[in-house]
Amino acid sequence: MPWPALLKRRPWAASFGLGLCTPLLSLPVSLGTAILAATLLPDGRFGESAAKSIGELGNWGFLLVGVLLMPAWETLIGQSLSVELLRRLRVTPWACVVASGAFFGAAHWLGGGLGHGLSTFASGTVFALAYWLCRPASFWHASTAAYAAHAMHNLLVWFVIGPLLGG
C-alpha cells in the first residue's frame, strides 16, 4: 500500500511504525557523521555527548529521562515547533527538514560540543523527515513519528550500540 494511502487509512499505526523504523536510517547517518567528525576535527574539538550527565543516572534513569522524557521535549522544540513555524512561513519542505536538523544539532552542540552537534544534526534531520512525512495526517501524528524515532534512536544508542562499542 502506498505511503499516502496507509497514512490516511491508519494514521496512528503509520506514524508510530515509521517512527520505530526511522533509526534504521538515523543510526548509520549519525554514527557515520560522528566517525567523520572524529576523524577530521582536531584533537579536543569533538566534545562530549550532551547526554553524558543523564548517563550518570544509570540504565533505569537513562531509560526514563533519555529515552522517554527528553525526546518528548526535544521533539516539541526541535521538530514540531521549528517545522511548523517554517511551514507557516511557506518554506519549502526540504528546507524545513534541514533547518529543523540544524536547530536540533545546534542545541546539542551547545550542550555537548561540535562533534555531538554534527552527529545530532544528521539524526535530527532524519527525525524531521519522519515528522514531515506524517504531517499530512496531523500535527499529532507527525509529532508521534518524530518522538518515536528519537526515543528508539536513543534506546538503541544507549542499550545496543554503546555496549557493542564498549561504551
Tell me what the structure shows.
With 167 residues, this protein is mostly helical. Helix content is 83%, strand content 0%. The model has no long low-confidence stretch (mean pLDDT 92). Helix 3 (23-40) packs antiparallel against helix 7 (114-134) and helix 6 packs antiparallel against helix 7. The relative contact order is 0.20. It contains eight helices and no strands. The longest helix is centred in the middle third of the chain and has 31 residues, at 58-88.
Layout of helices and strands, plus pairs?
Elements: H1 3-9, H2 11-21, H3 23-40, H4 52-55, H5 58-88, H6 93-112, H7 114-134, H8 139-164
Helix pairs in contact: 1-2, 2-8, 3-7, 5-6, 5-7, 5-8, 6-7, 7-8
Features:
mainly alpha; globular
Largest sheet: none
Low-confidence spans:
none
Q: Determine the fraction of residues in helical runs and give it as a percent range.
A: over 70%
What is the average per-residue confidence, as pLDDT, rounded to a whole number? 92
**What are the secondary-structure elements, in order, as H or E?**
HHHHHHHH
As a percent range, the share of strand residues is under 5%
Helix and strand content put the structural class at mainly alpha
Distance between the termini: 40 Å
Radius of gyration: 16 Å
What form results from the Cα inertia axes?
globular
The number of helical runs is 8
Q: How many E-type strands?
A: 0
